[in-house]
Amino acid sequence: MTDPNVDFGTVMTGGATTTYLVEFENANGVVQEVTGAAASGHTIVFSEDVSALVSAADKYRVRAAATIASVFGATNSAGLKPGYSGPTDCDVLFVPNANGTTTRYYYDADNTTWATVAPNVPVNAAQIPLVYLDGLLIYANASPSITVSGEVKTKAVSAVAVSGYNYLGTVYPVGATLDTVFGANTASVIHPGYSGPTDCDIIYVPTDSVGTFARYYYDADNTTWATVSPNVPVNGTTIPLPSGVVYFNAKGAINLKNNPPAFYSGL
What we know:
Layout lengths: L7 H4 L7 E7 L5 E5 L3 E2 L2 E2 L14 E6 L1 E2 H5 L19 E5 L5 E7 L4 E4 L5 E2 L5 E2 L6 E3 L17 E5 L2 E6 L8 H5 L19 E5 L6 E7 L4 E4 L5 E2 L9 E6 L4 E5 L9
Antiparallel strand pairs: 1-2, 1-5, 3-4, 6-11, 7-8, 7-12, 8-9, 9-10, 13-20, 14-19, 15-16, 15-19, 16-17, 17-18
């Protein structure tokens, strides 16, 4: 992306390793994740070709991603249960990576630093991005009460879903359902099933039972959402999505579009 009116080197001041989000304000809502190293002068280099999804007339914004330090505090001001020189009996953050896996972090109270679980090494929490399009998992040994504030997105967003499992943030805090986020048709579900959940994308929705998920796919033959097992149709408008879901992408990397509930247009 090139903008002759902006010197990204002076705008993106966090350094080469700081993660930024480039958000396009168009119908597709494309969001690209880049580091400061991707910017030079008037140009930002994206990791994928988004030319079919954006135009030169689209407005955009560039902002630094939240981090473990900015959300939970450089010294764990959020009050997660810490470990003491090791990740025993403590709360653990599972932060998604670009390859569909997660890295685990905990707060080490002995050494007053955040650290990875395996291997147990300290990290700079200000350099560990928490991208709002990702679903952050917290393994809680205690019962922490965490409040996160920020801007409510009112338009669609599109981000890359890699092949395999993707931990997604639902983005929309109220009113999100299978239908509103992924569509009552196959517009957002790139790989549907056909009368069965074979070779298709599957959405894992957390249930009230800790560690369990309800699984859904889009049945293109019968034009309905359905459960995976048993394979029965459901009304997508009645399936609420919590703050995070797991999206299994059955094939190659895709741009996955999340849509807001209709009433967000009035916010």
